[in-house]
């Protein structure tokens, strides 16, 4: 009987101890599984803008501090996936048949915790590859991609019109626009027309720009932005154009080129910034007013004229400032008229000049009266120090006439004298 009682007592003590331990473990919140979640280091796409039905390649890198095996899963708000790599870190995504913004999300798990990362892809409409009649492109809520491996051509006698808000991204480094007819850009301040490179992070020189060539060729460009090309906009061989409130920036060559006798361009209210050269004119007509030409890596305005009696170049009420070499570089016999401009802070780090005559054989003085030359302590000596002409080199046949000068800027400079405000 005694042994039997001892047995039941031992059973009771065992289960009592077990219940106490289970209760203690259940109440102790410090008892947890230790795990470091995975980390997604990168998520890259081969393109950020593609046409309907186009495909991008996605690849990711991830790691886990615990060294756990990782698995990858992908989802998107539209389209389809294919060609997933063995470890799942790479995959192709094909866009659906309608334009819009689509979000692709990567999830990486170590079977305990999950890390997520998303990227957006813009699905665009394909820009026409050619035109055989007058064509108008309008903004319908999405961008366009020019997929041509060479330039889109506007033939003589035809007109291409781009409506407010249209954005064209150029795929090929050889792509762009060759205009032998008429290009009309009807951008507005609120809805400019933009033509640029198709790249997630664009750099200069990714496409060929917009070229006008031949006497029928004409551009009527309003609120147009051109960026990341070789030369931004180019007029040659008796072509003509008007640029109103346009912006030409971050181009690898020259922002605006006007060349050949008979070519004629007027620009008003334009901003030509951060190109290699701002404006280049050779034996052609240019009338520039109320425009800013700043922060270019070489010269702001370069003018090369063989016979000044055959062309007219006038620069009026413009800001030509902060260009790395010279504000104006005049060669051959260039003799522009420069008035009511703000010309300052050019060539500060390169010993450049506000106006420099170089390889110059003209004998007619340059008229540059009534300009603002910056905030100078002694303008009587400081202004001529910013000019390189016959006073500096007797072989140069002309002077720059700068008197009288202005003591305050005649046009708006944006945010102060050096403010980088486009």
What labels describe this entry?
single chain, 422 residues, mainly beta, Immunoglobulin-like, 2 domains, 13-stranded mixed β-sheet, ten-stranded parallel β-sheet, 2 helices, 38 strands, 8% helix
Overall number of strands: 38
CA gyration radius, whole angstroms: 33 Å
Range of strand content:
35-45%
Query: Termini separation (Å)?
Result: 102 Å
Helix content: under 10%
Category from helices, strands and their pairing: mainly beta
Structural shape: elongated
Give the uncertain stretches in residue-range form.
none
Return the average pLDDT rounded to an integer: 92
User: What is the helix tally?
Assistant: 2
Number of domains: 2
Largest sheet features: 13 strands, mixed
Give a description of the structure:
Strand 7 and strand 8 form a beta hairpin. This protein has 2 domains: 39-122, Immunoglobulin-like (Sandwich); 125-401. By secondary structure, the chain is mostly beta strands. The strands form 5 sheets. Strands 2, 4, 7, 8, 10, 13, 16, 19, 22, 25, 28, 31 and 34 form a 13-stranded mixed beta sheet that branches. The protein has helices spanning 2-27, 379-385; strands at 39-45, 49-51, 55-63, 71-76, 80-82, 90-94, 100-109, 114-126, 135-137, 144-146, 152-154, 159-162, 167-170, 177-179, 182-186, 193-197, 210-213, 218-222, 224-227, 233-236, 240-244, 247-249, 254-259, 264-268, 271-273, 277-282, 285-289, 292-294, 301-305, 313-316, 319-321, 328-332, 337-339, 342-344, 355-360, 366-367, 387-388, 400-401.
Topology:
Blueprint: H1 2-27, E1 39-45, E2 49-51, E3 55-63, E4 71-76, E5 80-82, E6 90-94, E7 100-109, E8 114-126, E9 135-137, E10 144-146, E11 152-154, E12 159-162, E13 167-170, E14 177-179, E15 182-186, E16 193-197, E17 210-213, E18 218-222, E19 224-227, E20 233-236, E21 240-244, E22 247-249, E23 254-259, E24 264-268, E25 271-273, E26 277-282, E27 285-289, E28 292-294, E29 301-305, E30 313-316, E31 319-321, E32 328-332, E33 337-339, E34 342-344, E35 355-360, E36 366-367, H2 379-385, E37 387-388, E38 400-401
């Amino acid at each position: 009987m005694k042994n039997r009682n001892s047995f039941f007592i031992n059973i009771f003590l065992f289960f009592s101890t077990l219940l106490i331990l289970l209760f203690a473990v259940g109440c102790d919140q410090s008892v947890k599984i230790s795990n470091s979640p995975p980390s997604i280091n990168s998520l890259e796409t081969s393109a950020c803008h593609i046409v309907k039905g186009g495909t991008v390649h996605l690849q990711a890198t991830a790691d886990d501090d615990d060294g756990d095996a990782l698995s990858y899963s992908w989802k998107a708000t539209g389209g389809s996936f294919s060609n997933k790599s063995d470890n799942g870190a790479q995959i192709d995504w094909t866009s659906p048949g309608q334009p819009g913004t689509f979000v692709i999300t990567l999830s990486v798990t170590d079977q305990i915790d999950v890390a997520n990362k998303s990227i957006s892809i813009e699905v665009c409409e394909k820009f026409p590859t050619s035109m055989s009649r007058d064509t108008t492109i309008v903004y319908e809520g999405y961008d366009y991609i020019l997929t041509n491996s060479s330039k889109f051509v506007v033939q003589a006698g035809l007109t291409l019109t781009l409506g407010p808000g249209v954005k064209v991204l150029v795929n090929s480094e050889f792509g762009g626009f060759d205009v032998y007819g008429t290009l009309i850009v009807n951008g507005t301040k609120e809805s400019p027309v933009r033509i640029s490179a198709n790249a997630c992070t664009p750099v200069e020189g990714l496409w060929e720009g917009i070229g006008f060539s031949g006497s029928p060729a004409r551009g009527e460009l309003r609120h147009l932005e051109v960026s990341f090309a070789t030369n931004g906009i180019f007029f040659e061989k008796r072509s003509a154009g008007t640029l109103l409130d346009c912006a030409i920036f971050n181009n690898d060559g020259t922002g605006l080129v006007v060349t050949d006798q008979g070519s004629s361009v007027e620009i008003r209210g334009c901003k030509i910034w951060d190109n290699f050269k701002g404006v280049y004119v050779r034996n052609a007509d240019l009338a520039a007013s109320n425009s800013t030409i700043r922060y270019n890596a070489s010269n702001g305005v370069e003018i090369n004229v063989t016979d000044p009696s055959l062309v007219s170049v006038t620069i009026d009420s413009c800001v030509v400032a902060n260009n790395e070499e010279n504000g104006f570089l005049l060669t051959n016999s260039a003799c522009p008229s420069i008035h009511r401009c703000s010309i300052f802070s050019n060539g500060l780090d390169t010993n450049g000049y506000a106006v420099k005559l170089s390889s110059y054989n003209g004998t007619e003085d340059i008229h540059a009266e009534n300009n603002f030359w910056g905030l100078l302590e002694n303008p009587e000596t400081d202004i001529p120090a910013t000019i390189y002409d016959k006073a500096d080199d007797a072989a140069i046949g002309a002077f720059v006439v700068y008197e009288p000068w202005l003591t305050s800027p005649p046009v708006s400079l944006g945010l102060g004298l050096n403010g980088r405000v486009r």
